[in-house]
Protein backbone atom coordinates (compact mmCIF):
# COMPACT_ATOMS: atom_id res chain seq x y z
CA UNK A 1 0.00 0.00 0.00
CA UNK A 2 2.87 2.36 0.76
CA UNK A 3 4.07 2.22 -2.80
CA UNK A 4 0.69 2.94 -4.36
CA UNK A 5 0.71 6.79 -4.02
CA UNK A 6 4.14 6.98 -5.65
CA UNK A 7 3.03 4.84 -8.57
CA UNK A 8 -0.13 6.90 -8.95
CA UNK A 9 1.93 10.11 -8.89
CA UNK A 10 4.30 8.87 -11.60
CA UNK A 11 1.37 7.69 -13.72
CA UNK A 12 -0.42 11.03 -13.32
CA UNK A 13 2.75 12.99 -14.11
CA UNK A 14 3.33 10.90 -17.23
CA UNK A 15 -0.21 11.56 -18.46
CA UNK A 16 0.23 15.27 -17.71
CA UNK A 17 3.44 15.45 -19.79
CA UNK A 18 1.75 13.61 -22.66
CA UNK A 19 -1.22 15.96 -22.55
CA UNK A 20 1.09 18.98 -22.47
CA UNK A 21 2.91 17.82 -25.61
CA UNK A 22 -0.36 17.15 -27.41
CA UNK A 23 -1.57 20.66 -26.57
CA UNK A 24 1.44 22.38 -28.15
CA UNK A 25 0.79 24.45 -31.31
CA UNK A 26 1.54 22.78 -34.62
CA UNK A 27 4.42 25.17 -35.33
CA UNK A 28 6.15 24.21 -32.08
CA UNK A 29 5.68 20.51 -32.80
CA UNK A 30 7.17 21.02 -36.27
CA UNK A 31 10.17 22.73 -34.69
CA UNK A 32 10.70 19.85 -32.26
CA UNK A 33 10.39 17.27 -35.04
CA UNK A 34 12.87 19.17 -37.20
CA UNK A 35 15.63 17.78 -34.98
CA UNK A 36 14.63 14.23 -35.95
CA UNK A 37 15.42 12.29 -39.08
CA UNK A 38 12.40 11.94 -41.36
CA UNK A 39 11.88 8.28 -40.55
CA UNK A 40 11.92 9.02 -36.82
CA UNK A 41 9.49 11.92 -37.33
CA UNK A 42 7.02 9.67 -39.16
CA UNK A 43 7.27 7.10 -36.36
CA UNK A 44 6.70 9.76 -33.69
CA UNK A 45 3.54 10.91 -35.49
CA UNK A 46 2.03 7.48 -34.82
CA UNK A 47 2.05 8.16 -31.06
CA UNK A 48 -0.88 10.56 -31.17
CA UNK A 49 -3.98 10.79 -33.33
CA UNK A 50 -3.56 14.57 -33.50
CA UNK A 51 0.01 14.16 -34.77
CA UNK A 52 -0.95 11.56 -37.38
CA UNK A 53 -0.46 13.87 -40.38
CA UNK A 54 2.08 16.34 -38.98
CA UNK A 55 4.91 14.79 -40.99
CA UNK A 56 3.10 15.69 -44.22
CA UNK A 57 3.67 19.42 -43.63
CA UNK A 58 7.01 19.49 -41.82
CA UNK A 59 9.02 22.45 -43.21
CA UNK A 60 12.36 20.72 -42.61
CA UNK A 61 13.16 17.35 -44.15
CA UNK A 62 16.11 15.34 -42.82
CA UNK A 63 16.62 12.14 -44.81
CA UNK A 64 19.40 9.85 -43.58
CA UNK A 65 20.09 6.46 -45.15
CA UNK A 66 21.73 5.37 -41.88
CA UNK A 67 18.20 4.92 -40.53
CA UNK A 68 18.01 1.88 -42.80
CA UNK A 69 20.02 -1.32 -43.00
CA UNK A 70 22.82 -1.36 -45.57
CA UNK A 71 20.99 -4.10 -47.46
CA UNK A 72 17.74 -2.09 -47.50
CA UNK A 73 18.74 0.42 -50.18
CA UNK A 74 15.54 -0.32 -52.12
CA UNK A 75 13.47 0.24 -48.96
CA UNK A 76 15.24 3.57 -48.42
CA UNK A 77 14.41 4.72 -51.96
CA UNK A 78 10.75 3.70 -51.59
CA UNK A 79 10.53 5.53 -48.25
CA UNK A 80 11.89 8.79 -49.67
CA UNK A 81 9.67 8.60 -52.74
CA UNK A 82 6.55 8.03 -50.63
CA UNK A 83 7.59 10.69 -48.11
CA UNK A 84 7.69 13.33 -50.84
CA UNK A 85 4.69 12.05 -52.81
CA UNK A 86 2.38 12.03 -49.78
CA UNK A 87 3.36 15.45 -48.47
CA UNK A 88 0.77 18.20 -48.33
CA UNK A 89 1.10 19.72 -51.84
CA UNK A 90 0.76 23.29 -50.51
CA UNK A 91 3.21 22.85 -47.61
CA UNK A 92 6.52 24.66 -48.26
CA UNK A 93 9.95 23.19 -47.58
CA UNK A 94 12.39 25.52 -45.85
CA UNK A 95 15.32 23.11 -45.55
CA UNK A 96 16.05 19.83 -47.31
CA UNK A 97 18.87 17.60 -46.06
CA UNK A 98 19.82 14.30 -47.68
CA UNK A 99 22.51 11.94 -46.43
CA UNK A 100 23.04 8.70 -48.31
CA UNK A 101 25.66 6.15 -49.29
CA UNK A 102 26.87 5.33 -52.80
CA UNK A 103 28.67 2.14 -51.77
CA UNK A 104 27.53 -1.33 -52.72
CA UNK A 105 24.90 -2.23 -55.29
CA UNK A 106 22.09 0.03 -56.40
CA UNK A 107 24.23 3.14 -56.88
CA UNK A 108 22.75 3.95 -60.27
CA UNK A 109 19.22 3.70 -58.90
CA UNK A 110 19.95 6.09 -56.04
CA UNK A 111 21.70 8.48 -58.41
CA UNK A 112 18.67 8.53 -60.70
CA UNK A 113 16.24 9.22 -57.87
CA UNK A 114 18.43 11.87 -56.24
CA UNK A 115 17.84 14.34 -59.06
CA UNK A 116 14.08 14.03 -58.61
CA UNK A 117 14.32 14.52 -54.84
CA UNK A 118 16.45 17.65 -55.20
CA UNK A 119 14.15 19.04 -57.89
CA UNK A 120 11.17 18.51 -55.57
CA UNK A 121 12.86 20.54 -52.82
CA UNK A 122 13.76 23.34 -55.23
CA UNK A 123 10.22 23.51 -56.59
CA UNK A 124 9.02 24.05 -53.02
CA UNK A 125 11.38 27.05 -52.75
CA UNK A 126 13.67 25.47 -50.15
CA UNK A 127 16.13 28.11 -48.95
CA UNK A 128 18.71 25.49 -47.95
CA UNK A 129 19.52 22.20 -49.67
CA UNK A 130 22.27 20.04 -48.15
CA UNK A 131 23.47 16.85 -49.83
CA UNK A 132 25.97 14.56 -48.09
CA UNK A 133 27.36 11.50 -49.85
CA UNK A 134 29.36 8.62 -48.35
CA UNK A 135 31.27 6.67 -51.00
CA UNK A 136 34.39 4.64 -51.66
CA UNK A 137 36.81 6.02 -54.22
CA UNK A 138 35.94 3.24 -56.63
CA UNK A 139 32.40 4.56 -56.85
CA UNK A 140 33.25 8.19 -57.63
CA UNK A 141 31.06 9.30 -60.49
CA UNK A 142 28.67 12.05 -61.52
CA UNK A 143 25.72 12.16 -59.12
CA UNK A 144 23.51 14.52 -61.07
CA UNK A 145 23.60 15.33 -64.77
CA UNK A 146 22.27 18.65 -66.02
CA UNK A 147 21.18 18.79 -69.63
CA UNK A 148 22.43 21.28 -72.21
CA UNK A 149 20.07 24.06 -71.15
CA UNK A 150 19.25 24.99 -67.58
CA UNK A 151 15.79 26.36 -68.19
CA UNK A 152 14.63 23.98 -65.45
CA UNK A 153 16.50 26.08 -62.91
CA UNK A 154 13.97 27.75 -60.59
CA UNK A 155 14.21 31.20 -59.03
CA UNK A 156 16.10 31.29 -55.73
CA UNK A 157 14.50 34.50 -54.50
CA UNK A 158 15.79 34.23 -50.92
CA UNK A 159 19.24 32.78 -51.58
CA UNK A 160 22.11 34.98 -50.31
CA UNK A 161 24.99 32.48 -50.05
CA UNK A 162 25.81 29.89 -52.74
CA UNK A 163 28.62 27.34 -53.17
CA UNK A 164 29.24 25.69 -56.55
CA UNK A 165 31.86 23.34 -57.97
CA UNK A 166 33.99 23.39 -61.09
CA UNK A 167 31.20 21.84 -63.17
CA UNK A 168 29.37 25.17 -63.36
CA UNK A 169 32.22 26.70 -65.39
CA UNK A 170 31.77 24.43 -68.40
CA UNK A 171 30.41 25.88 -71.64
CA UNK A 172 31.76 29.36 -71.02
CA UNK A 173 30.37 29.56 -67.46
CA UNK A 174 26.84 28.85 -68.68
CA UNK A 175 25.55 27.10 -65.53
CA UNK A 176 27.17 29.73 -63.30
CA UNK A 177 25.47 32.52 -65.25
CA UNK A 178 22.07 30.82 -64.99
CA UNK A 179 22.39 30.33 -61.22
CA UNK A 180 23.45 33.94 -60.66
CA UNK A 181 20.66 35.29 -62.86
CA UNK A 182 18.12 33.19 -60.95
CA UNK A 183 19.39 34.38 -57.55
CA UNK A 184 18.50 38.10 -57.43
CA UNK A 185 19.51 38.50 -53.76
CA UNK A 186 22.75 36.54 -53.92
CA UNK A 187 25.51 38.31 -51.97
CA UNK A 188 28.29 35.74 -51.61
CA UNK A 189 29.41 33.14 -54.13
CA UNK A 190 31.98 30.44 -53.36
CA UNK A 191 33.56 28.50 -56.23
CA UNK A 192 35.44 25.31 -55.35
CA UNK A 193 37.68 24.51 -58.30
CA UNK A 194 39.56 21.59 -56.79
CA UNK A 195 38.41 18.05 -57.48
CA UNK A 196 39.93 14.58 -57.22
CA UNK A 197 40.89 12.64 -60.29
CA UNK A 198 41.64 13.94 -63.76
CA UNK A 199 39.99 17.18 -64.76
CA UNK A 200 37.47 16.50 -67.48
CA UNK A 201 37.87 18.16 -70.84
CA UNK A 202 34.23 17.61 -71.82
CA UNK A 203 32.28 20.75 -72.56
CA UNK A 204 28.61 21.24 -73.22
CA UNK A 205 27.66 23.29 -76.26
CA UNK A 206 24.87 25.72 -75.45
CA UNK A 207 23.43 28.93 -76.81
CA UNK A 208 23.90 32.01 -74.66
CA UNK A 209 22.13 34.23 -77.18
CA UNK A 210 24.86 36.85 -76.69
CA UNK A 211 22.83 38.37 -73.90
CA UNK A 212 24.64 40.87 -71.64
CA UNK A 213 25.46 39.62 -68.18
CA UNK A 214 26.43 41.43 -64.99
CA UNK A 215 26.67 40.26 -61.40
CA UNK A 216 26.37 43.66 -59.77
CA UNK A 217 24.29 42.34 -56.86
CA UNK A 218 27.18 40.10 -55.74
CA UNK A 219 29.31 41.52 -52.94
CA UNK A 220 31.95 38.79 -52.51
CA UNK A 221 33.21 35.92 -54.65
CA UNK A 222 35.56 33.43 -53.00
CA UNK A 223 37.52 31.13 -55.31
CA UNK A 224 39.05 28.07 -53.64
CA UNK A 225 41.60 26.34 -55.86
CA UNK A 226 45.02 24.74 -56.09
CA UNK A 227 47.99 27.10 -56.28
CA UNK A 228 48.77 28.25 -59.85
CA UNK A 229 45.54 26.78 -61.20
CA UNK A 230 45.04 28.38 -64.66
CA UNK A 231 41.28 27.92 -64.37
CA UNK A 232 41.25 30.42 -61.51
CA UNK A 233 42.65 33.08 -63.85
CA UNK A 234 39.81 32.46 -66.31
CA UNK A 235 37.30 32.84 -63.47
CA UNK A 236 38.84 36.14 -62.38
CA UNK A 237 38.78 37.47 -65.95
CA UNK A 238 35.13 36.46 -66.25
CA UNK A 239 34.23 38.22 -62.99
CA UNK A 240 36.09 41.38 -64.04
CA UNK A 241 34.23 41.44 -67.34
CA UNK A 242 30.96 41.03 -65.42
CA UNK A 243 31.50 44.18 -63.39
CA UNK A 244 33.26 42.97 -60.24
CA UNK A 245 36.37 44.58 -58.75
CA UNK A 246 39.53 43.03 -57.35
CA UNK A 247 38.43 44.01 -53.83
CA UNK A 248 35.38 41.76 -54.20
CA UNK A 249 37.29 38.69 -55.42
CA UNK A 250 39.12 36.55 -52.87
CA UNK A 251 41.43 33.72 -53.95
CA UNK A 252 42.05 30.99 -51.39
CA UNK A 253 44.51 28.15 -52.03
CA UNK A 254 43.48 24.77 -50.63
CA UNK A 255 47.06 23.39 -50.86
From TrEMBL:
SUPFAM superfamilies per the UniProt record, alphabetical: F-box domain (SSF81383)
SMART domains associated with the record: FBOX
Pfam families for this protein: F-box
Matches recorded under PROSITE patterns: FBOX
Segments forming a coiled coil: none
Domain F-box: 18-54
TM segment ranges: none
Protein name stated in the entry: F-box domain-containing protein
Organism: Oryza glumipatula
Amino acid sequence: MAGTPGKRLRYTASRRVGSTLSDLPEGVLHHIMSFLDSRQAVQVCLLSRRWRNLWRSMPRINIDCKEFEVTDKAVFIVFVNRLLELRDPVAPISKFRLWYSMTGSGCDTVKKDTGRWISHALQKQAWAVEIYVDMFYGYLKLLLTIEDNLQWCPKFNNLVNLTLGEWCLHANFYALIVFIENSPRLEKLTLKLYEFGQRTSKRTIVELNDRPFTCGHLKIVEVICFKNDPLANHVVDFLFSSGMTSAQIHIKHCW
